[in-house]
Structures are given as C-alpha cells and as structure tokens.
C-alpha cells in the first residue's frame, strides 16, 4: 500500500488551505493532476541553467536543452514500452494527438463511404475530430453499445466490425464510468477485420501499467498534465509504417529536411510531426513526471487506486438517493461519477467546494454519453496516488451536508 500522506508531502499544493481553513481534498485528478516538487524543480532548473531553443543551435545551451528534451522522449517511450522513441510524437495533449491522426492519416486514407467505429463512452476528444472528418469526407460513423452495467458490449463491437471500418478508435478507460476496456482484445478483434486502431489513453497511462507494444495499437494518445506533468505536453505514439506513410500535420521549422523555392522535403520521424518551437520545458517536465511515477511504481499506484475506489464505492453506495454511474468497483479505475436525487451536480460540487473538496460537475466532455444515460450532468470524484480513505470520508460527510441543505 502507498502511504498517501507521505506522497502528499511531495506536492506543494497540499500545503495550502482553501476557503480560509479547509484542508484541500483534491478529487479531480481525472480533469488534471497536481504536480510534485520534483517536476517543478526540473522545469525551473531548465530555465535557470540550460534553456535555449532545441535542435538548431551549435552552442552549449542549445545542446543541453536538446539533450534534456530528447532524454524526456526516451523516458516516456520506455515508460509505455515503446522500443523506438522516434515513434513518440510530442503534441500539446491527447486532443491534439487524436486531431493529428484525423488530419494527417484520416484525410489521406479515408474516402466517402468508409466507416469509423467508436464506442458510446468516448470523450469529445475522440468524437469531434471524427465528426469533422466525417463531414468533410462523407465517412460513416458507427458506435459500439454498452451493456446495462456500462461495460462495452463486445458482441455488439464484433457485430459493428462487420461494417469493415477503416478505423476503430476507443478509450482505454472511461473518464465518466471508470470502465477499463479490454484494449488488447479489442485491438486484436479490430485488426482481424482489417481496421487501423487508435486508443485514447488519457485516463489509462496516468493510472495503470501500460505496454503499448503488447496492446498492439497503431496509434495511442495521452497527456502529461493528467500524470503529474505540466500542461502543454502530450504524446502521439504511432506505428512506424503509418507515421511514415502520413503527410505532415503542420508545416514550418524543424519538420523539414530541405526547403527550396519549389517546395520541401519532410524530416525524419518524429520531427516530421513537430513543426515550430515545441513546449520544451513542458516536455522535460513530462520526463520528470515519468521519473516520479516510475519511482513509486505503476503497479503500486494502480493497486492503491483500486483499494481507494472500492472503499469509496462501498461508502457512496450506502448513501440514500445517490446513484453511481457504471459498473461495480472491481471493474473500474479510480473514477466514480454519480447523481444525487433532486440535487443538481453543480450544487453538489459547490457545497463540496465550500468544505475544501474539489470534484467535477457537468458532462465531463462526454455529452453524448450523458444523453445516453438520460441525465443532463453528473458529479465526478476521481482519485490518484495522493488520495486516501480520509479524503473519501470527507467526501461522504460533504455529501451528507449537501443532503441536509437540500432537505
Ligand atoms: N480522453 C479522455 C478519456 C479524457 O478524460 C480527456 C480529458 O479529460 C481527454 C481525452 C482529453 O485530454 P486533454 O484535454 O489533455 O487533451
């Protein structure tokens, strides 16, 4: 078991109080996680001692910055078991990674009448880029249904593969239902039907050990800010074959090998997809976040979150009028969304906030899923390595107060 109290000492934000004298109970890591001191220090150190633009200068600082940037890429690729860092494209976030694929792969390889298969539990990031593409290219979008527990209906997924989709894109873990999808099996099924597979790993890489090679996906996307790293840095993993076949996403400096007045030749991977000056400090901070998580161990983090989730699920299930969305505790990661009878989620979140408890209220960028569940919104508590039972007890007491206020 992790000692979350000790872990909180690594995160300076937990030194502060909120609303005067309230301890910060941070249950919103699915939206964005807090940052340990080590990540802040590495970024500070870069700016104070090594900073210059990368890949261009022939001077000491440029070489040091470049070495730190490329070392971060290597750490991130090792973390998710990708042998060649050239397959790891730095982007701004998961959203940009998915848009990159929709733009540079989708626009080149999809044509009118082709199908894309998604699931009913996708975040807007893994819906809207495909809707935009579908509109432009007259591509058809299909959805795999969920069963009554909120788990993906694998039989229906198989049935939808009968449309022979060119692309199958799905989340590794739902940011609303907490469901962890059987991604390796789904990838194998999709590959058997001849599809290219993209996985949205925004909620999985921060919380579970992930081996992208073992899963076998063609594309895999995730964000630094949900895994103790800074905002502004994300990753798109791609198979070498597909990345080489794709045209560049953005044009400009760094993504070229040669430019003349007649045209250009694109650079090698991964630079072909990294036009312009990137988020240098953020990428290096991402590397420091990987060091931090690796130091604690992803198995330990995952099992701690399973424990906290079971504890929270049991406690919340006892509350009259509270309905948890999605399956039982043993089938989910550290996310619990719920509704409270006759109280709007915004009111729940506001009253919790007044007690120092940060949760998310709304549709969590999954409006269609909420429509499917026939609710306008929900309240979401999400857990990370720095949460413990005391945080869950505070949440339960907080909900008690909400119920008292609303009679
Ligand atoms: N996919 C899922 C499942 C998410 O939970 C999120 C963020 O909440 C995203 C994608 C988008 O991540 P980002 O905002 O970092 O691009």
SSE layout and pairing:
Blueprint: H1 4-8, E1 17-18, E2 22-23, E3 25-26, H2 37-50, H3 60-79, E4 88-91, H4 94-109, E5 115-119, H5 128-137, E6 140-144, H6 154-161, E7 167-171, H7 183-192, E8 196-200, H8 212-215, E9 219-223, E10 234-238, H9 240-245, E11 256-259, E12 264-266, H10 280-296, H11 298-317, E13 322-324, E14 335-340, H12 345-354, E15 357-358, E16 360-362, H13 367-372, E17 378-382, H14 389-405
Parallel strand pairs: 3-15, 5-6, 5-7, 7-8, 8-9
Antiparallel strand pairs: 1-2, 4-10, 9-10, 11-12, 13-14, 14-17, 16-17
Helix pairs in contact: 2-10, 3-10, 4-5, 11-14, 12-14
For this structure, the CATH topology of the largest domain is Aspartate Aminotransferase, domain 2
Question: How are the strands of the largest sheet arranged?
Answer: 4-10-9-8-7-5-6
Helix content range: 40-55%
Q: Which homologous superfamily in CATH is the superfamily of the largest domain?
A: Type I PLP-dependent aspartate aminotransferase-like (Major domain)
Strand portion: 15-25%
CATH class of the largest domain equals Alpha Beta
How many H/I helices? 14
* Distinct small molecules bound, one entry per kind: pyridoxal-5'-phosphate
Assembly state of the chains shown: single chain
